[in-house]
Amino acid sequence: MKAHDQMYIGGAWRPALGQDTIAVVNPADEQLIGHVPAGTAEDIDAAVQAARAAFPGWAATPPAERAARLSALSDALAARKDELAETITAELGAPLPLSQTVHAGLPVLVAASYAELAASYAFEERIGTSTVLLEPVGVVGAITPWNYPLHQIVAKVAPALAAGCTVVLKPAEDTPLTAQLFAEATESAGLPPGVFNLVTGLGPVAGQALAAHEGVDLVSFTGSTAVGRQIGATAGGAIKRVALELGGKSANVILPGADLARAVNVGIANVMSNSGQTCSAWTRMLVDAERYEEAVTLAAEAVLKYVPGERVGPLVNAKQQARVRGYIRKGMEEGARLVAGGPEAPLETGYYVSPTVFADVTPEMTIAQEEIFGPVVSILRYEDVDDALRIANGTVYGLAGAVWAADDEEAVAFARRMETGQVDINGGRFNPLAPFGGYKQSGVGRELGPHGLAEYLQTKSLQF
Fold first, then answer.
1. Residue 355 exposed, middle or buried by CB count within 10 Å (0-12, 13-18, 19+)
2. Is 364 in the active site?
3. What share of the chain is helix, strand, coil (3-state, %, to 5)?
4. pLDDT category of residue 2 using cuts at 50, 70 and 90
């Protein structure tokens, strides 16, 4: 593997223009595992210039050839799956089985799906007397988070490349080593120089420079709603397109007659996965008044299986750990009933938080309104189906959710009324081709599948 002290720009690894570096720490044992360059605005400019120079050639590359490069990228990621999983475990803290199956496994499938889409997508269609062309938007600035470091990279870079765009990636500063491995995979896949570029750095410096750069045509960002708002304002000043995948406070709605034990157990597992660091996690469990206490008991029992340091990893850093523990204290202060877990750190070393369940949570409480981003579940009581819908839709977010009912038809009827971008019906499985994204302050645009590809295309019509 190449040294960690370089960036990938214009098809070559090169030192950063500045001298500052970013420390990478293993959140499970708090040990230093490396440093990467803290990129500057000048590094971003060099990467954008390389992407602009490469854009005409890549945009003109036949879709079948772009598809071949993406297939090669998927193969390169698959070949390094073990190394990627180990790196993600080291810098994110995720248990290795989760890193192997989800963090390193899912991106292989997503990259392969865009290889297929690039080969089959209708980039041109006839409408009446017009020929309508779908053309690449240009240079994409991709800013990715730390919670799913490889998946989020692939979910942006793969559709951008399939569309014919070139990319500058600024990954999260907590998980940059995974991004460097991804850059090596693009080399193995034979992408032309400048089609993909990597600049590591801090958000307020490198991220802001990328979002504001006049040579970037579209900014694709995943992260907090607060930062997404800033990026949207920056892009809006330049009339620049954005794709924003932001926060969530998703509802897990258990309707009367549903399989309560299954719904509660799957709901707890959904939040505990990745230590609760998932924007689409079902952190609000809604249960009817008649079965409420039974659900609380089931949840308290289910969460005991998620042992910190074994099935549940640490949070990504000390700041995040302190933030989540603060939310747990806030829930207790506002009168929620703590039935499992609590604010005390479960282990002496590592940024762990105890898997926590609250009961008697009311919709106006802070823990029912704000995104916690940790292993914390709030259980809310509703009186009837309309009350459940009011509570489910009663936040500024609308990213994901779940509905459980006696039959799929009843669940779908409820889901149609939810103000959210993706709803799982009676435990429906994740579909990497389905569009992912949110309503309201959960973002703008969609990722994955053909809808994700469309974000990176612009439309031209020819009349003759």
1. buried
2. no
3. 45, 25, 35
4. very low
CB-neighbour burial class of residue 128 (10 A; exposed 0-12, middle 13-18, buried 19+): exposed
**pLDDT band for position 3 (50/70/90)?**
low
User: Which residue of the set 91, 184, 245, 447 is catalytic?
Assistant: 245
Predicted pLDDT of residue 74: 98
Full DSSP string of 38-98? ---HHHHHHHHHHHHHHHHHHHHS-HHHHHHHHHHHHHHHHHTHHHHHHHHHHHH---HHH
Work out the number of other CB atoms within 10 angstroms of the CB of residue 289. Answer: 12
3-state secondary structure of 447: strand
Q: What is the pTM of this model?
A: 0.97
What does the alpha-carbon distance between residue 136 and residue 93 come to, in Å, rounded to a whole number?
A: 37
The residue assigned the tokens 């960690």 is 4
Residue pair 107/77 in contact (Cβ under 8 Å)? The answer is yes
Beta-bridge mates of residue 360 = none
Does residue 41 have a pLDDT over 80? yes
Both structure tokens of 276: 């609760």
The DSSP H or E segment spanning 169 is: strand 166-170
CA 435, CA 449: separation in Å to the nearest integer?
A: 6
Residue type present at position 132: V
